Amino acid sequence: MTSRNQQLFEKSQQLIPGGVNSPVRAFRSVGGTPIFFKKGLGSRLWDADGKEYIDYINSWGPMILGHAHPEVVAAVQQAAANSLSFGAPTGLELEMAELINRLVPSMEQVRLVSSGTEATMSAIRVARGFTKRNKIIKFEGCYHGHADALLVKAGSGLLTFGEPSSAGVPAEVAAHTLTLDYNNTQMLKDTFASIGDEIACVILEPVVGNMNLIVPQQEFLQTLRALCTQHGTVLIFDEVMTGFRVALGGAQALYGITPDMTTLGKVIGGGLPVGAFGGRKEIMSVLAPLGPVYQAGTLSGNPVAVSAGLTTLKLVQAPGFYESLTAKTTQLVDGLKAAAQKAGVPFSAQSVGGMFGLYFSASTPTSYAEMMQADKSAFNTFFHSMLDSGIYLGPSAFEAGFVSAAHSNADIAQTVQAAEIAFATL
Ligand code: PMP
């Protein structure tokens, strides 16, 4: 019998490239039919066939309170009743800027946009405009949205001038993007020693969540901060994923490193499209209408989206929120590790705040190269067994997972039980 999910996917492929509006949703990496959802509540989701799941994607991070949180839904309804959009300033945007500035003090000035891609793309333009330099540094395996200059991966060698990793990106655009190895302090030092004064900015995920989960080494972050200061290079923390996810003040609070600029997204929209970029006032002052760097958006600071975000940010400030989220995520990771050990499967896992990484390798990877060594086919088998048991994980061995405040101890226990079955099949 063909399921409703299968029917929807077959029809979608006629009209939507690959049947999806964002590639990872297509299950290309794990195979099978993507799940089409029709409802979410708290930690749970229901698909088009009525099957129930415990959700560990949480819309790739934003749903930190779980799905359809009543206070967020009420805030959205109230804002919507006062018009969906003005294309003019509102007091809500000011409230959001004040809140972001209070919780992430390095963001002295903030501009709102509608996605993480817009935030990183704009931050880089500002950094280039401010420094009057063209070259930028990113790290292999970090994802910063799909702006041309950021769709670049590294080749081998100490210093690799970028080659686009997507068709449609001119080589000339990618040529200004240098890609280095994450957590490789020596490579960073060597690069700055040779061309430090030509580098406009360094952008990184301060905890990487786009090549599974990779944790930064403190020495790497400290060296990066010192080199950027020394060479007048703008240090951009892309906290689109980690902002309000690993700690209330983001990864910069957790690791005690202050960037010059920060990008946000995901949690600050509570599930609606909001991004932000901000940083030192001196740097942000180059933006139009004050300065020569242009950036704009018809729906930027949209009142409905900002209301969802403000209510989410109000609720995550509850005392003990991140302690509880972190403890729950640790409990999940520990339970999965114990289940794998019992089954004799080479497996490791770790978490930071409400983000976690699962690796089908005996030790936790610290770089893209190490991550690529993980057993992808074991992950795929594990993924499908978990999905059958109603546990919805990211459909790729290279995605991080997310726990929300709505996940209960019973959810975690059910997940670990499903994992025992899954590990036994490997
Ligand atoms: N930066 C990071 C660190 C991200 O994880 C993402 C999206 N996963 C982006 C930027 C791009 O955000 P968006 O998908 O909202 O454009």
From TrEMBL:
Reaction(s) this enzyme catalyzes, per UniProt: (S)-4-amino-5-oxopentanoate = 5-aminolevulinate
Molecular function GO terms recorded: glutamate-1-semialdehyde 2,1-aminomutase activity; pyridoxal phosphate binding; transaminase activity
Gene3D superfamilies according to UniProt: Aspartate Aminotransferase, domain 1, Type I PLP-dependent aspartate aminotransferase-like (Major domain)
Gene Ontology cellular component list: cytoplasm
GO biological process: protoporphyrinogen IX biosynthetic process
Residue ranges of the TM segments: none
Keywords: Cytoplasm, Isomerase, Porphyrin biosynthesis, Pyridoxal phosphate
Pathway terms, separated by semicolons: Porphyrin-containing compound metabolism; protoporphyrin-IX biosynthesis; 5-aminolevulinate from L-glutamyl-tRNA(Glu): step 2/2
Keyword Isomerase set for record: yes
Quaternary structure annotation from Swiss-Prot or TrEMBL: Homodimer.
Protein name per UniProt: Glutamate-1-semialdehyde 2,1-aminomutase
Organism: Methylophilus rhizosphaerae
